[in-house]
Amino acid sequence: MNKFLAMLKDSYKEAVDGWIFTVMLVLSGVVSLFVLSISYRPISVEQAIPKMLPEMRNIGNPQPFQMVSPDRGASPKLLVYQYSAKVDEVAAKPRGGDIWKDEVSFRLKIESSGGGGIEVGADKQPKKIDFNAFFRDSFTEAVRIWAVPAGAEKPAFTDELAIEFLKHQLVGATRLDVTDVRKIGEREYRVTANGASSPLAWPHKPSLFFGTVPLSIFEMPLGDQIHLVENTFVNGIGAWFVLMAGVIVTAGFVPNMLRKGAIDLLLTKPLARSTILLYKYIGGLIFVFVLALAAYGGIWIAIGLRTGVWAPGLLYCVLGVTFYFAILYACSTLVGVLTRNALVGIVVTVLFWFVVWIIGTVHNTLTVLDNLEVQGAPPRAAKKADAKKTEKPKNEADEDEVPDGPPKPPRTLVKVFEVLNAVTPRTKDLDTLTSNLISRELLSEGEQRREGLKLRSIDWGEVLGVAGAYIAVFLGLALLRFVTRSY
Amino acid sequence: MPVDQSVIATDGLCKTYGSVEALKGVSLSVNRGEIFGLLGQNGAGKSTLIKILLGIVRKSDGGAMLLGETAGRSDIRKRVGYLPEDHQFPQYHTGASLLHFYGQLYGMSRAERNRKIPEVLETVGIRKRMDYKLRTYSKGMKQRLGIAQAIFHNPDVIFLDEPTDGVDPVGRKELRELFEKLRDEGKTVFVNSHLLGEVELMCDRVAILQRGELAQIGTVAELTKQEGRYVIGLADGEELPLDELERRGLKTTKVGDRWEVLVPGEADIDTIVRLLAERGLKLRHLVAKKQSLEDVFVEMVDQADPGVDNRKKKTREVGA
Hints:
- The complex is a heterodimer.
- By secondary structure, chain A is of the alpha+beta class.
- In chain A, helix 9 runs antiparallel to helix 16 and helix 11 packs across helix 13.
- Chain B has two domains: 220 residues, P-loop containing nucleotide triphosphate hydrolases (Rossmann fold, 3-Layer(aba) Sandwich); 46 residues, no CATH class.
- Chain B is built from ten helices and 14 strands.
- A six-stranded mixed beta sheet of chain B has the order 6-7-8-3-9-10, with helices on both faces.
- The C terminus of chain B is likely disordered.
- At the A-B interface, helix 1 and helix 8 of A face helix 2 of B.
């Protein structure tokens, strides 16, 4: 144990000796102070409710309210419907205490227009898609799809079903504690709620530098704002910096140790060679763990102090980032032992990182495209165009016809990337894991779906197993070379 | 020399790097409590021999024993100190922190390290700099630190590769005295050096490696022994009676303004002195010539096939 601590301390001294570690720590401190300067103020009920149900119609950024899973939300299938919800006549009945706990009521008007069509280009691929073209009413379709159990027939649309659907969607999308939904007109409903279930669901107005620079553009639920900082800036950009700094700093650990005149001194100490290399490897991991802990921990504390939200998800991500780095550092260690060159180690490791990232990204994209069904968009537009003569006019399409999603990616391509993804470390899945850790405490169920976190199930045992196998193989080869080589 | 008394023993030790034979069946032994010098040209195999004994390099064939155990075992290394040539200490350490690090690897307790580190740094003369980063150390100071790290855990055998490299003359003398003190304490000091004068001054026995083979081994006295060779100098303008000396079977060589005379075993230098007196020549210089270790080494290198890094032949003048 004493020897292990000595090696760790030595690795620590080596790491902190360089300027990168200092720069990273200073950068973490500056970012933490910046985050500490952000103030969050809950906005009024009248302003808040419409912001909880934004009318985004962009298919590339569907809102949780428009995302539907069949079987009353139990199905893993995710469908996007292009109806919109307009909110007005918002009234609040203060209950004393926090504004987000006030009783609220508002009118919800569903708009679900039809019309439009599909324009097919010369290459017979869809050029322009109007997603409402295939339904007279996408809201009706959404309600029926939501209510249908797996393998059963779609039930008929009823007002009672629509109310149940709206309650479910509102709770999932906004985390409002909905107590009542009543029909007050054609596609018009009166919604009553006992405020939000959490301050995280309530839109807040952020201001920089202790309130001096208001950021009205970011008026959205507090959970979304924290999620933006934690997931996008810290766990996205920040993690990239930590990993890159880790790769650069630690790439020199093994080559420096193997320099002539340095390795002789180490090999003549009463330590097995395998122990020396493993201790050096663990030293690198601890370096990144400390760096990530400083970066993530500082921001976590700053957010906690300013919002009162102490969701530990961000802290768990420190372990995720360290495990991610363990894969990269195993590669770097192997290259370091083989070449004794830090620069080659950095280049090969970054290349390896890039390749597995590309494989994961393409695989995920293909999987999403392969599974996502966007109602209203014909998948085989060309086929439909070819068969135009035999089909009914679009505005007379059968209401029960359920078109498939947009054009599917080629099966061969999907299979190739499934295999590649299966046999390489799934770093994209690790990203998803860490994102999940952050999101599950900050976002609503619907918001998490919007983030694409539950579009497909991930077998974590398999993900960690494959990554662990890579670490074992890289380190095993490095050890084999290190133990048998004459220096 | 019986092998069972030795702390270092090799038997037909061979090492090949691809097609290059670095060691060709080297057999030697070193006893407890002696300072042993290993000489040889660059590429002769000296460092390879030490590295095999320490387990840094794997042997190809033959045997190597250290402290009675097969060389290279990690548990034996606790009893061994080593100063490599061109050592590179991590620059982020201070002198003290480096010794703390190595001390921990040797399993020394904190109390023991706290006691021994200042002591040993005082011994090698750099205690005042113990808390400075190594990047501020001069070459000589790093060399002293290297010796400190090789001896501070109280090893039984100390391997020193060019131990006085970069150290000033006063420091060299101090280090020589330190090595002799270690020998007197029963430690074995194995020195690998190009500074033949240093080796001659401090080593009890010396081995010379030539192209991976053991060319000579013995005490310094045995290696430098040269019977019947004298250097004679006369008064200005006077000449040695070379004809007479040749007639008496004495071989002479003029070296500068003096003569080197090889006297056969039974002949007496007094005969020559008497002859010079009879001729009225004034004797101004007469010394029995002793061969230095450097002479032995260079002569051997000149005679042998060149090593990997062949030395240039040089013309030497024999001085008084």
